[in-house]
Amino acid sequence: MKLRGIALLFTTITIFSFWQCRNEPHPVQMGVDTCTSVALSDPGIFISKMPQPSFSLASGKVPYGSKIVLHADSLPAPGIYEISVDEGKNWKAAECFAVTDTMNVWGRTRYKNILSPVSKASFTIFYQRVLIVGNSITLHGPLPDRGWFGNWGMAASAPDKDYVYQISAKLKALNPAVDIRLLIAVDFEQNYRTYDYAAVKPFTDFAPDLIVMRIAENTKMTTINDYENRYDRLITELRLKNASSKVICTTSFWANMEEASYRIRNVARNRGYEIADFAEMFEDASLTAIDKFQERDIGIHPSDKGMKAIADNISKHF
Predict the structure, then answer these.
(1) Nearest to 153 by CA among 278, 302, 311, 316
(2) How many whole angstroms separate alpha carbon 311 and alpha carbon 138?
(3) Kindly report the CA angle at 55 between 44 and 177, in degrees rounded to 5?
(4) Is 108 helix (H, G, I), strand (E, B) or coil?
(5) pLDDT in tens, 42-99
(6) Which structural domains are found in the chain, ordered by start?
């Protein structure tokens, strides 16, 4: 009799724990596929309707990568959550999702052919920590003996005309508190084969949720076959503290660096990064400041028009 009492107590605790875990939303981590909704064993109970789920966050602006969880009270064990991002055309068994773009999301619960009412939400993203990896097009101090007196993106006529200022304004419109930092990576471009990646640790620790890779123009060509894996590693190092960060790669503004651009495209395609391609800019001389500086090496940098074209190309991937 005593053993039967212990068994009954154990069974009661097990059932209670199972039901509690199945119905309470649980924390999830970015980068881990914990969102798939899996039906548990069918207890053989009669089910006539399914509960309508709710979203853990209300519609509106959310930080990039936010995890949104679907939750319904008293979801039967064999029921599942489903999510659609194309207005109900296709449904995926999932109980949560990461917001990585502007999106309209529908959610429901289902058991066989029994469907709950649909819940709907709309989300737009903003970024909290942005890292721009660049070179002289991003920032260059004065070179008065060569005719450059600025301390901003080289060849732009004023600070608010360079691409960094322009994309920063767009990022701040999404989130006034966004923290934007610059990593001037000319040393990497010129010495990528022997580059000490420990140099970027402060930027890795920053854990950016958006990385803009605006380098290519100074790439050392004599060792170009090593560039692709070194460029790939640089991004990997920068994402060590936030592996789900969004990455926007850009190709070279200069046509003579197509070998570097080719490898940048390869990395972006293989890793699923965004690519802002500048190839169409090569034919438009007005995008450079060549007629505004006697020093050719300065004049081949983007003009105000070129800076705006770069900013527009990058920001469309936000």
Answers:
(1) 302
(2) 11
(3) 155
(4) strand
(5) 656 678 899 999 999 989 999 999 999 999 988 888 899 999 999 999 999 999 999 9
(6) 25-125 (2.60.40), 127-315 (3.40.50.1110)
Q: How far apart are CA 35 and CA 196, in angstroms?
A: 37
CA distance 53 to 72: 4
> What number is the average pLDDT over the span 240-246?
96
Distance CA 52, CA 115 (A): 9
* Burial environment of residue 172 by CB neighbours within 10 A (0 to 12, 13 to 18, 19 or more): middle
**pLDDT digits 0-9 by tens, 88-140:** 999 999 999 999 999 999 999 999 999 999 999 999 999 999 999 999 999 99
**Rg for the chain (alpha carbons), in Å?**
26
Q: H-type helices in the chain, by residue range?
A: 2-23, 163-174, 186-191, 201-205, 227-238, 258-271, 296-299, 304-315
